[in-house]
């Protein structure tokens, strides 16, 4: 993980003076969104999906659960994405799927972020054996290929969408814990923290009021890069039958229905494209954010 | 671990003695931490699978037997589920020391035998995919870094971001539909054609076995069967490796020695390959190690779609049936892979950059 975890340079230290070369200025480069068409496209796609999720009942032509059309009908004027094996309108189901995937993705990434930040913050601030124990646990979870651990958890808790979310949170928190720990470690000896401590601030106060604002940026970038993976993992669990249960219109579960009727390609193709578009959009945004915040890759000198 | 015995010969040559001592100490240390990791992973797997409400008896006994308390009790006694959890775990560890991973509750065979059967298929698939990803990923990464911010770079950026955004289960289905069902170019599943028998057993990896024994038609068939699942698996890791190769090469290109190499008139390809790519490889192989782990994740989904009889399908079946000994066995396999991959990555550091000492 090459997180932007370097210690913030003290502008007066000799190191800062030498690394900040002649042509580079100390002022951070202002984000210029128009220079980043991919990020803009990503934002547009996410905004479109949010609108679709909110207004799905208005936009969708049919009830996503209504089984009243021809079975496995090919895409047509009446059913843009065709109908599935129970005679439901695939287009409406894809639109309604946004109401499940988008909120869950946000919820689970926030949960993973909070859990990881608390654990990483505690580990970094207290150090010693607390740090050792917490980070070894994080390493263990990290070492597991995500889906195998999530599979075991989701299967053990029972096949339900809620349990799949829990499973994804369980495998996602360690990267946040690692990042926050390294940020706290590098901030612990920074002058503003030392000053705060000399003023008599308590540990929790220093963590929450002094360090948290400075750690927020990198953590949000990680979240932006990670949310796509979380969506993939969640829909993968649903695809395997361990997440959303029928008749819920969830994209991963819909691809699984397509797998059973792969002769009728439209059943699985469109929900998969929906997943791809959301994940790709999040990754465009995350990639641009990382480029903006990571000076090494953003401003590498080219001769 | 065969690496350990091969790498620590009894009589090192005098001049290189220090180096060998370093290597031996390094390997011993690695085996030590590896053992700790194995125990830790079995503990995590044990806690996760035993402290949750799922009931293995319910998942594995038939409808009639569930209603019969005696049958349920017999099942629980047979698999040791009636004893307190810490006792169960200690018993598991003790059996493990004797190479006994327990009996699978669904296949009624020793878990070790199941693993022996399924692991080679997955290793073969994962190795094929990682080699493919390294070649394509590093290649694309070089092009992207050389043409930084020009159209080839932008194109590669979009393609690779697409790769890491692709739901693997979906692209697997699309590939299956297109190349098997519609075009008929490639076989749709399994490791060989239904009429073919496995090559003479040596490693269990069909391509290797067939090549070693000169069974060329089998080799061709095994490769054709590998191609589709391997490519699908590689899509994600190619994206990962390309992006990382580009980033670490760009970081290195800013160095003064690269400018010096150009100024003294070295051809551009020499500068890129020898002065930029080679130092970048150190961080690229770190990511390749991580990529291998994510390949294993991918196998769970891809093996299910291409009916590849490997550990991914086995893990899925075990999890769904709450086959606890099998889940524990899969976890151990995963831990072993993690340890071996990290060891290989660390040893490769020394090969790529001789200045890196094993410590």
Can you describe this structure?
Chain A is mostly helical and 303 residues long. Chain A is 69% helix and 0% strand. The two termini of chain A are 28 Å apart. At the A-B interface, helix 4, helix 5, helix 8, helix 9 and helix 10 of A face helix 2, helix 8, helix 9, helix 11 and helix 12 of B.
What is the gist of this entry?
The complex is a heterodimer of chains A (about 300) and B (about 350). Chain A is elongated.
Give the topology, please.
The complex is a heterodimer of chains A (303) and B (359).
Chain A: H1 14-19, H2 37-59, H3 90-126, H4 128-143, H5 146-157, H6 161-188, H7 191-198, H8 203-239, H9 251-260, H10 266-293, H11 295-298
Helix pairs in contact in A: 2-3, 2-10, 3-4, 3-6, 3-8, 3-10, 4-6, 5-6, 6-8, 7-8, 8-9, 8-10, 9-10
Chain B: H1 2-7, H2 17-50, H3 56-60, H4 63-66, H5 69-78, H6 85-97, H7 111-146, H8 151-165, H9 168-182, H10 206-212, H11 216-253, H12 256-263, H13 268-305, H14 311-320, H15 324-352
Helix pairs in contact in B: 2-15, 7-8, 7-11, 7-13, 7-15, 8-11, 9-11, 9-13, 10-11, 11-13, 12-13, 13-14, 13-15, 14-15
What keywords describe this structure?
heterodimer; A: 303 residues; mainly alpha; MetI-like fold; 11 helices; 0% strand; elongated; disordered N terminus; disordered C terminus; B: 359 residues; 15 helices; 75% helix
């Amino acid at each position: 993980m090459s997180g932007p975890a370097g210690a913030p340079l003290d502008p007066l230290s000799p190191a800062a003076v030498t690394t900040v070369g002649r042509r580079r200025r100390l002022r951070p480069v202002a984000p210029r969104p128009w220079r980043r068409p991919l990020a803009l496209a990503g934002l547009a796609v996410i905004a479109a999906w949010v609108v679709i999720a909110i207004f799905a009942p208005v936009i969708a032509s049919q009830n996503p659960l209504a089984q009243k059309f021809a079975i496995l009908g090919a895409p047509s004027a009446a059913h843009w994405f065709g109908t599935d094996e129970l005679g439901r309108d695939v287009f409406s189901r894809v639109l309604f799927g946004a109401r499940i995937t988008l909120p869950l993705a946000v919820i689970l990434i926030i949960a993973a972020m909070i859990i990881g930040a608390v654990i990483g913050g505690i580990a970094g601030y207290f150090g010693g054996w607390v740090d050792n124990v917490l980070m070894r646990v994080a390493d263990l979870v990290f070492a597991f290929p995500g889906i195998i651990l999530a599979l075991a958890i989701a299967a053990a808790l029972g096949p339900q969408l809620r349990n799949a979310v829990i499973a994804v949170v369980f495998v996602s928190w360690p990267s946040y814990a690692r990042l926050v720990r390294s940020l706290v470690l590098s901030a612990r000896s920074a002058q503003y923290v030392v000053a705060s401590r000399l003023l008599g601030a308590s540990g929790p106060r220093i963590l929450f009021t002094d360090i948290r604002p400075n750690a927020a940026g990198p953590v949000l970038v990680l979240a932006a890069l990670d949310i796509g993976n979380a969506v993939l993992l969640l829909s993968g669990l649903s695809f395997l039958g361990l997440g959303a249960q029928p008749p819920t219109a969830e994209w991963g579960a819909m691809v699984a229905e397509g797998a059973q009727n792969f002769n009728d390609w439209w059943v699985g193709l469109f929900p998969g494209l929906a997943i791809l578009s959301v994940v790709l959009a999040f990754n465009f945004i995350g990639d641009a954010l990382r480029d903006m915040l990571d000076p090494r890759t953003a401003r590498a000198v080219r001769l | 671990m065969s690496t350990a015995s091969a790498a620590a010969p009894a009589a090192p040559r005098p001049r290189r003695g220090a180096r060998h001592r370093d290597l031996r100490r390094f390997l011993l240390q690695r085996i030590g931490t590896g053992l700790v990791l194995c125990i830790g992973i079995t503990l995590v797997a044990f806690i996760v699978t035993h402290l949750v409400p799922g009931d293995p008896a319910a998942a594995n006994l038939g409808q009639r037997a569930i209603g019969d308390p005696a049958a349920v009790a017999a099942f629980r006694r047979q698999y040791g589920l009636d004893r307190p959890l810490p006792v169960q775990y200690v018993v598991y560890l003790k059996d493990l020391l004797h190479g006994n991973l327990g009996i699978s509750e669904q296949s009624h065979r020793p878990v070790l035998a199941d693993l022996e059967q399924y692991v080679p298929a997955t290793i073969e698939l994962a190795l094929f995919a990682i080699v493919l990803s390294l070649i394509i990923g590093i290649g694309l990464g070089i092009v992207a870094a050389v043409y930084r911010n020009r159209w080839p770079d932008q194109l590669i950026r979009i393609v690779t971001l697409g790769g890491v955004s692709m739901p693997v289960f979906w692209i697997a289905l699309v590939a299956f539909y297109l190349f098997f069902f519609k075009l008929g170019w490639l076989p749709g599943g399994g490791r060989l054609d239904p009429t073919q028998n496995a090559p003479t057993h040596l490693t269990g990896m069909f391509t290797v076995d067939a090549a070693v024994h000169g069974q060329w038609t089998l080799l061709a068939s095994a490769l054709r069967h590998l191609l589709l699942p391997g490519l699908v698996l590689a899509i994600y890791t190619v994206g990962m490796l390309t992006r990382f190769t580009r980033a670490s090469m760009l970081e290195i290109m800013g160095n003064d020695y690269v400018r010096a190499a150009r100024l003294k008139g070295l051809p551009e390809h020499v500068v890129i390959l020898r002065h930029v790519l080679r130092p970048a490889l150190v961080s690229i192989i770190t990511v390749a190690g991580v990529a291998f782990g994510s390949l294993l994740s991918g196998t769970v989904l891809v093996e299910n779609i291409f009916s590849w009889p490997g550990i991914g399908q086995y893990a899925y079946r075990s999890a769904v049936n709450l086959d606890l000994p099998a889940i524990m066995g899969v976890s151990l396999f995963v831990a072993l892979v993690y340890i071996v991959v990290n060891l290989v990555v660390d040893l490769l550091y020394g090969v790529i950059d001789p200045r890196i000492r094993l410590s």
